[in-house]
Amino acid sequence: MLKQVFVALAALVACAAPAAAQDEITPPFYVVRDADSTMYLFGTVHIRPSGADWGNARVRAALAETQEIWTEMEMSPATDARAQTLATQLGMAPPGRPLSSWLTPEENQSLNATLARMGFPAGALEQFQPWLAGLTLSLVPVIRAGYDPNSGVDRAVDAFGDANGKTMRAFETVEEQLGFFADMSPEAQREMLREAIAQEPEAAAIMGHLTQAWERGDIETLNELVIDEARLNYPEMYDVIFVRRNNAWMRTLVGELNGAGVDFVAVGAGHLLGEHGLVAQLRYRGYVVEAVR
To answer: CA–CA separation, 142 vs 180, rounded Å?
Structure first.
């Protein structure tokens, strides 16, 4: 099970659930054009049920048209293996600082009750740092509900690019991505763990609610559940996961738009949304960004 969790860590956390088989999904999808450049922005989710669709005809047509495909990081067996190694290195508790020491006695009781529901013994995560324990508690019930880290949208986009001879680009390394979590302040890590414990009984239902919004392209609901929730309740995590990364990616995107050709950018849907999202930042810079319908 933890091997699957580490694979999911390599892609970061996102939300997904099955779509109705007869319905075409319409995820968040935008296009930016200037005189000699076209850039598609595709908001993804990083974990999906096996066999669930990952895009529609318009997304596939844009991929066929594109020359360069950008994802958050390189996707390969070597990257997955590196993610597992790094999670072990960065996520293990230092001597004398077990996971239980981060929580009150009452919170430890809740943690052990959560582990019992998962079929794990009390203290099963004692060797973990809070951020890794929090991600584990968030991902295990979702994986057990039938979601597969290997079926994420980003991986499907990457597979399309590899199969069709596209030039693949990445914004970040796996070291950078896991470092975002490992470098969070102690208080932010503690809050992440507490939230994971509190939400574990409803984790699969929450994933389903969020993914329905993603599959419908319901930007208002996604903003409310992903961006507003993080910005208001977890400001440090919001700054680390969204603001800083989006700002860094924008420098790359503007550089690409200053050139020529067609680019396809596939990143977690949350990175497109809100006042710090890529769509808003491009519009602020004077680019016309249109939703692809």
So the answer is: 22
- Is the Cβ–Cβ distance between 12 and 237 less than 8 Å? no
Task: Confirm if 71 and 157 have CB atoms less than 8 A apart.
Answer: yes
User: Does 18 reside within a domain?
Assistant: no
Number of domains in the chain: 1
Q: Is residue 17 part of a domain?
A: no
What is the average pLDDT across 231-244?
A: 91
**How far is C-alpha 270 from the geometric centre of its chain's CA atoms?**
8
Which residue stretches of 66-185 are H helix? 77-91, 105-118, 130-144, 153-163, 174-182
Q: Is residue 19 part of a domain?
A: no
Domain containing 127 equals: 2-12+25-291
CA distance 141 to 118: 7
pLDDT digits (tens, 9 = 90+) for 209-236: 888 899 999 999 999 989 998 898 889 9
pTM: 0.88
